[in-house]
Amino acid sequence: MAPVSREDASRLGQADSSWDEDDYQRTVAGDVRSRFLPGTSIEVIREVGPAAGFRHVLFDFDGTLSLIREGWPEVMVPMMVEELLATGTRESAEDLSRYCREFVMTLNGKQTIYQMIRLAEEVRSRGGIPREPAEYKRDYHARLMARIKGRRDALRNGQARPRDYLVPGAHDMLSALHGLGLPLYLASGTDEQYVAEEAALLGLIPYVDGRVYGARDDFRSYSKKMVIEQVLRENQVDGSALLAFGDGYVEIENVKSVGGVAVAVASDESGRSGRPDAWKRDRLIGVGADLVIPDFQDAAALIGYLFGGASQK
Q: Which residue among 64, 69, 106, 260 has its CA within the 20 to 30 Å range from the CA of 112?
């Protein structure tokens, strides 16, 4: 089977585009007016308020809750540079690194396979013979797992605590939402088996009660859009009943497209500074995020704003 190009993906999706994850496209232009909830780092772009009536809550995983895979671009980009240098291109490693990082981050939020499809295209455009995108993905994941093995092992044997590898305040936020009786969902671009494993290591499984979704070998059989459609269909609710948290544009864009409310988690993954990552903030506001937070340290204030302190029925 030949690598799937973006043109092929578009053609295949004409009959059923529910699996497709569009490239980033800014829909909110110009300066935005916002305010901060008093005494917090919660930035309100569009007012939501307690009358929204949320009944289901969707979370992205990596970067939104989990920091186990923090630093993944430092694994993916060098691998891509190696592949492109092997084509005989005259570009320098430094130039290729900058170029690859740009498109890798542009595609961040989609399933990993999309970044590998792009790599195959870049190899071909330089006269090389690309490997299958799935093979590139396996290579990348093996390298990433080698990098994060110590983190996973430390969590497994108790040398590290879950909060050491969680976005600050994540457990408080999940606990508060779970206490309101709301079904919580994890939907990730990372492979589903690893999302489930790492969510368990971080103590998140009790909050989601098995509602964990992630990428599959057949990437057309999964997307965050599909998860959202399934939640709404099976529970017979419309999009306004959905609240979502994410640090990637895909979940923000998908939730806004059905009329839900999206909270952008502009997490500073490496520094955990309590300040929003400026690149993430701008990017997520650009696809319609209603609120922006750097982490969940103001969970109580955020719950109060979204739900007005009312108990969920």
A: 260
